[in-house]
Amino acid sequence: MGLVHLGRARLAMALPAHRERLRSVKDHGLYDLFEKYALAANTLDALQRETPRREERLHDFQQLCLDLQAEVVVVLDRLHEESW
Known about the structure:
- The protein is an all-alpha fold.
- Helix content is 81%, strand content 0%.
- It contains four helices and no strands.
- The longest helix is centred in the C-terminal third of the chain and has 28 residues, at 55-82.
- It is elongated, with a radius of gyration of 14 Å.
């Protein structure tokens, strides 16, 4: 599964209110965010499985994922407004 597809799928799970728009949107700027999210979420998963846990690094990647989610929502809203 490519990073764009994986990131889009993971964002759809994390942002259920935006699921339909995430599935249908075609925007290269968002594709870059999908890739970044896939990489950050995969790293977060790996950090959550580590023993002992590196809490500071774990927190950094949790925040990065939240920041990317927020950025995706902003872009989705902007694209939606432009389509009206």
